[in-house]
User: Which sequence fits this backbone?
């Protein structure tokens, strides 16, 4: 038995492969650097969905269909937005997605892909007391998400940065949320039920909930003034350093470098440059502190560290970072759910009973 299922192969997939020793991520035959910054998000959705849906349109038409799906999702959720807004942003997004139809068609899939990009800005605006903005189906997915957040057209640089982020996190092997999605899909439940499984798993701070705490950490270190002391104190209290460490990668997470270069490009044109210099200092110090504290384990920077900086730079508050992660990852979940429904069997592992034995009845 393995506590944490390390090295257990629980599915065969054509979708993505994580090479933890080499630090490479392959998505349907393409390396991450060949996709991120070069393909837009709808093109990557088309890549992931290929073979899993009948009549899948080419990527440009799929982009238009995702735009129409954003408009349809908005019509469905607008009446319930006041109730959704009474929850935290992630809970509101999850509850909004739960009311979508639970089928297996391309339309069901596209509504799920569209939904976090519509719900996240609407819920953030509600928290500021501002009315939700309706989607513009003619805009790109990332550009429209930012426009719905701020109420003004997004600059091409910010839209491109967000689009690159969504592509970078679209899929990543059998991570906890994708595994949860596949377990639900293995029962032949619908796509919405399956994605809700993924949404539940993504929320935790050991998985997709890490980037918000990364911002809190950077702010706390800035206020403290001495990064090494702050980080050592954190470890001596038994706390983890957020944005570092990974179950599979023993080298630097390749997504971290992709996102860091996006943040650097944004810094050249705007005012995020000082924040990046500070974050790089914290990263370097954290790697050294971790190397000394955990010499037997290679703990490197993971995707969440530069996710936090990127999402902050494009204008999302930390409370919504996990929602934006879900906006990218939902396409991978849907593709994995379809792959499991089509090719897989019911997932039903065993547990080993270590509890007390009932008394024998005389
Ligand atoms: N800070 C401090 N210690 C760490 C960290 C960290 N970030 N990461 C691992 N460790 C230590 C653990 O304390 C443990 O030490 P011990 O053996 O002395 O008790 C050892 O490394 C192994 O810990 P596990 O949880 O078993 O290792 P795993 O490699 O499976 O952990 C995880 C992966 C959960 C991501 C971990 O690195 C972590 O908690 N990181 C911080 C949270 C984070 O950044 N999560 C986002 C991950 S990326 C993603 O999901 C998209």
Assistant:
């Amino acid at each position: 038995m393995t506590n944490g299922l390390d090295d257990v192969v629980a599915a065969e997939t054509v979708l993505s492969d994580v090479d933890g020793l080499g630090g490479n991520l392959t998505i349907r035959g393409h390396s991450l650097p060949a996709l991120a910054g070069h393909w837009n998000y709808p093109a990557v959705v088309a890549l992931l969905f290929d073979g899993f849906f009948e009549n899948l349109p080419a990527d440009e038409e799929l982009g238009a269909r995702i735009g129409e799906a954003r408009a349809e999702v908005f019509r469905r959720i607008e009446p319930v937005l006041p109730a959704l807004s009474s929850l935290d942003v992630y809970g509101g997004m999850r509850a909004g997605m739960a009311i979508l139809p639970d089928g297996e068609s391309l339309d069901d899939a596209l509504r799920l892909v569209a939904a976090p990009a519509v719900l996240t800005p609407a819920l953030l605006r509600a928290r500021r007391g501002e009315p939700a903005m309706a989607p513009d189906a003619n805009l790109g997915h990332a550009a429209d998400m930012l426009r719905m957040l701020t109420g003004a057209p997004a600059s091409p640089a910010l839209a491109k940065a967000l689009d690159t982020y969504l592509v970078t996190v679209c899929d990543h092997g059998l991570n906890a949320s994708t595994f949860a999605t596949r377990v639900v899909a293995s029962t032949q439940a619908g796509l919405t039920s399956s994605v809700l499984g993924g949404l539940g798993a993504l929320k935790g701070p050991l998985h997709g909930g890490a980037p918000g705490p990364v911002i809190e950490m950077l702010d706390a270190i800035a206020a403290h003034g001495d990064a090494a002391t702050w980080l050592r104190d954190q470890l001596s209290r038994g706390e983890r350093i957020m944005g570092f460490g990974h179950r599979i990668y023993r080298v630097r997470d390749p997504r971290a470098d992709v996102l860091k270069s996006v943040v650097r490009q944004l810094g050249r044109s705007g005012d995020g440059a000082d924040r990046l210099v500070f974050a790089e200092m914290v990263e370097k110090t954290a790697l050294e502190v971790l190397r000394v504290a955990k010499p037997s384990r290679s703990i490197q920077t993971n995707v969440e560290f530069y996710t936090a900086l990127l999402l902050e730079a494009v204008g999302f508050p930390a409370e919504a970072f996990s929602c934006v992660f879900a906006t990218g990852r939902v396409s991978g979940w849907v593709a994995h759910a379809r792959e499991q429904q089509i090719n897989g069997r019911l997932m039903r592992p065993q547990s080993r009973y270590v509890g007390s034995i009932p008394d024998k009845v005389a």
In short: The pocket of acetyl coenzyme *A is lined by residues 206-208, 210, 235, 240-247, 294, 297, 299, 302-304 (CB under 6 Å). The CA atoms of residues 133 and 148 lie 5 Å apart.
